[in-house]
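Reopening this ticket.

The earlier resolution said the output was attached, but the attachment link was broken on my side. Pasting everything inline this time so it's all in one place.
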Amino acid sequence: MFSLTLRQISRNSFVGANVSAFNVSKYSTVPEATLDIQKCTLHKLEHGPPTQATVTREDAIRFYRDMRTVRRMETMAGNLYKAKQIRGFCHLYSGQEAVCVGMESSITKDDAVITAYRAHGWTYVRGVAPHAILGELTGRASGCAKGKGGSMHMYTKNFYGGNGIVGAQVPLGAGIAFGLKYENKPNICVTLYGDGAANQGQLFEAYNMAKLWNLPCVFVCENNGYGMGTSVERASASTDYYTRGDYIPGMRIDGMDVLAVREATKFAREYALNNGPILIEAATYRYHGHSMSDPGTSYRAREEIKEMRETRDPITVFRRKILECNLVTPEELKKVDIEVDKEIDKAADQAKKDPEIPLGELYNNIYIHPDPDYTVRGCDPSIRVISH
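Inline output:
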């Protein structure tokens, strides 16, 4: 049933979309092009993002490369999991790449991001190399959290994870936004959660505080249609998640179009800095199950997944658009594909060879700057180990 939402969004934006460019030559590229994007559905907003987006040739190649990297990295993660090189939880982001790539392109590295456990793509766009991500997934010392966090707990500067408790990151995101406002910083916090977390009571408490203090927080519901194995229609009395903030303005955007996401995030960032919180519902889709333990086919038809891959895939649709308007050539994109595949293959090979951390390292990084003689108790009360 969820696919009806995406079909409605896609009806006008992907068939016969208008494209304008400086040059329509079949054999040369143009410096930039303007493409139509789907109009957002608004809540308590008089106007929203534009319905056209101009993209430069350089940005088009970068967006394609970044989405392709996330997709290839997630495919590799799935293969490593099946080979038992990755254990425990593992939630793949395949199909949702336009959200993280589009949003990251509209914020700064000084802006903050916090998300749920489907975090690999966000970790990459925030600046962590594929080798450090795959190293974290395989529990290696080269991982971005030294192999201690795994799939759900990856971090870097101004990226606060990767959080395993459903919805718990949303009040934290409001708190990060509070800190930014308290310190008079010109930045926002992008606080992401899924449709499965949208009914959590703590979200509404966070909405209330964010609006009460007009915090620079952009709440983002990545609505991929299913909370674990339950469709949104079966879980929510109202599936208009962009209106759930009530007194907080919101908009539903096409989360399968990287340019639509970019323009919406630009709008939301400016709004949050000047007016306080705003809510985005990004209508997107995940190709895999909720996690690697979920085949993802017991609660939805294989035909639905196939249709989404063939008609709505964020990478192939964007590829077609930038080729049609002569921003890039097929040869250039083929080169990107080869480079990305080599990079991820190399990162995976290295991750499998890297050492694990020594057992004593498990006692470190509990507190920042602990006293030199600070000790941590082991499972046996008689065990006390120095913690650094």
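Reporter confirms the inline version is readable. The two ends are 52 Å apart (CA to CA). The chain has twelve helices and 13 strands.
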